[in-house]
């Protein structure tokens, strides 16, 4: 589909205004494909017609449909297993020691999409009952896509979805097959609350988080908005907590509120929790780097 410069700019500005994401020139090609469902459902024949409709009064529902269609909700269970192994082997044992007195952990899965990341986290705890017996684990899954959150709350996954990232044993242990699809076990769902939220806005939680996962969420943000997002995350965390980004993401150049953990790409700690380099060195050694 041919995308005129004016239409591209209007759509890109709409996406940025509502989500903070940039629709770069390199992603311009996917506009027509991403919006094909909106065109079909609304009886729209081309992008220029869509842009004209967006300019009309009371076009908010249409604008939201456009934004939802452009968001990348790609996800699957245990996406990037190396990162989940790092959580299981390094991060969670460290938090188990730090929170041994209270036996409570609060975790934020930011940009959780349709729920697979939050459920993967819950399975890490369920698969190690001897370590986590008697603990209260609270996982908050948020996403700017209200459609994604509705699906996450519904918690029904197709055969294809449940097999993406899960072995047969895990699938049969933690999910049950129903006439509608595969549903997670109650012990997993009881750990998780899903809410729509924009990472650029204050998180509506009275808790501070021990662990935040914000993986592949900020890839399409410009540097000022990444800084703003990292400030929001830092303000919502305990000073001795952990931040995990995607393996190719970093806080470097965007925030001075985090320090990278040597040898573990994508893993960070709040600067206030490692007041000097000697303390960070101890942390790195404890993390096995």
From TrEMBL:
Segments passing through the bilayer: none
This protein's record includes keyword Methyltransferase: yes
This protein's record includes keyword Nucleus: no
One example GO MF annotation = S-adenosylmethionine-dependent methyltransferase activity
Pfam families (alphabetical) = CheR
Q: Which GO terms describe its biological process?
A: methylation
The record ties this protein, via SMART domains, to: MeTrc (SM00138)
UniProt domain CheR-type methyltransferase: residue ranges:
1-263
Query: By its UniProt entry, which Gene3D superfamilies does this protein fall under?
Result: Vaccinia Virus protein VP39
List where this protein forms a coiled coil: none
Domain of life, per lineage: Bacteria
What does the UniProt keyword field contain? Methyltransferase, Transferase
Q: What PANTHER family does the database record attribute to this sequence?
A: CHEMOTAXIS PROTEIN METHYLTRANSFERASE, CHEMOTAXIS PROTEIN METHYLTRANSFERASE 1
**Protein known as:** Protein-glutamate O-methyltransferase CheR
Q: Which organism is it from?
A: Pontixanthobacter aquaemixtae
What lineage is on file? Bacteria, Pseudomonadati, Pseudomonadota, Alphaproteobacteria, Sphingomonadales
């Amino acid at each position: 589909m041919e995308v005129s410069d004016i239409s591209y700019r209007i759509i890109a500005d709409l996406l940025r205004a509502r989500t903070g994401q940039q629709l770069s020139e390199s992603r311009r090609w996917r506009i027509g494909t991403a919006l094909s469902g909106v065109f079909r459902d609304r009886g729209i024949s081309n992008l220029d017609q869509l842009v004209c409709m967006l300019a009309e009064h009371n076009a908010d529902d249409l604008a939201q449909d456009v934004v939802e269609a452009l968001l990348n909700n790609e996800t699957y269970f245990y996406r990037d297993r190396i990162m989940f192994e790092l959580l299981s082997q390094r991060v969670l044992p460290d938090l188990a020691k730090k929170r041994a007195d209270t036996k409570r952990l609060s975790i934020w899965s930011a940009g959780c999409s349709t729920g697979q990341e939050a459920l993967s986290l819950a399975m890490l705890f369920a698969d190690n009952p001897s370590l986590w017996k008697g603990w209260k684990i609270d996982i908050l899954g948020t996403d700017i896509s209200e459609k994604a959150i509705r699906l996450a709350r519904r918690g029904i996954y197709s055969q294809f979805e449940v097999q993406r990232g899960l072995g047969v044993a895990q699938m049969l242990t933690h999910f049950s097959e129903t006439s509608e699809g595969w549903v997670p076990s109650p012990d997993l769902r009881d750990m998780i609350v899903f809410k729509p939220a924009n990472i650029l806005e204050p998180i509506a939680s009275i808790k501070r988080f021990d662990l935040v996962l914000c993986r592949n969420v900020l890839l399409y943000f410009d540097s000022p908005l990444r800084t703003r997002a990292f400030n929001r995350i830092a303000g919502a965390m305990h000073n001795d907590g952990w931040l995990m980004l995607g393996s190719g993401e970093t806080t470097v150049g965007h925030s001075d509120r985090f320090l990278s953990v040597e040898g573990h790409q994508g893993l960070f700690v709040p600067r206030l929790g490692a007041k000097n380099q000697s303390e960070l060195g101890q942390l790195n050694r404890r993390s096995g780097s």
